[in-house]
């Protein structure tokens, strides 16, 4: 229920600015405001807007619409005055054209910028969950570890039996 949490509904990506001035794409929608009042990801990447970075003025209640529109309602003064601050750039490049960088962000092969896609939607107040069940993965890891240990013991027993058979054959010769 955080107004800065958004999940991409279906196919699509959120565009962010990289430190080198380029553009990259993420589905991590846990957004926040940095010390300068600019909308960014939890990792510190500035969210790309339709006209550049989106600045959030202080003392405002912020909401993010399904189309990525960021609106603010002042907490002081006229409370029914809605100000549109910008629109988050939402894209939908072909996934075969994306490569994952070491920073966890996705970029187009060969560089470039993807145009905004009007069909990409956001679910405000939600975060995209992981597709991994941590408890199930841990149980599976323990099970695989025990299977490995059992196979190593079998190999050691077979090796020991082979050595003893060699000793018996050497004594009978």
Structural description of this entry:
By secondary structure, the chain is an alpha+beta fold. It contains one helix and 14 strands; from the N terminus they run ββββββββββββββα. The strands form five sheets. Strands 2, 3, 6, 7 and 11 form a five-stranded antiparallel β-sheet that branches. β4 and β5 (39-41) form a beta hairpin. The model has no long low-confidence stretch (mean pLDDT 89).
Work out the number of β strands.
Answer: 14
Distance between the termini: 82 Å
Helix tally? 1
Run of helices and strands:
EEEEEEEEEEEEEEH
Strand content: 25-35%
Secondary-structure content class: alpha+beta
Largest sheet: 5 strands, antiparallel
What's the structural domain tally?
Answer: 2
Integer average pLDDT = 89
The low-pLDDT segments are none
Helix proportion: 10-25%
Radius of gyration: 27 Å
| Morphology | elongated
């Amino acid at each position: 229920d955080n107004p800065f949490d958004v999940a991409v509904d279906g196919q699509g990506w959120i565009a962010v600015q990289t430190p080198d001035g380029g553009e990259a794409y993420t589905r991590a929608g846990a957004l926040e405001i940095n010390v300068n009042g600019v909308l960014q990801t939890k990792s510190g990447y500035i969210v790309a807007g339709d006209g550049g970075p989106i600045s959030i003025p202080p003392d405002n209640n912020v909401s993010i619409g399904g189309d990525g529109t960021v609106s603010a309602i002042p907490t002081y003064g006229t409370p029914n005055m809605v100000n549109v601050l910008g629109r988050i750039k939402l894209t939908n490049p072909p996934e075969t054209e994306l490569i994952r960088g070491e920073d966890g962000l996705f970029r187009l092969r060969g560089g470039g910028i993807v145009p905004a896609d009007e069909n990409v939607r956001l679910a405000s107040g939600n975060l995209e969950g992981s597709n991994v069940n941590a408890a199930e993965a841990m149980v599976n890891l323990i099970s695989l570890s025990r299977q490995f240990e059992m196979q190593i013991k079998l190999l050691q027993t077979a090796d020991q039996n082979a050595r003893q058979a060699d000793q018996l054959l050497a004594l009978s010769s």
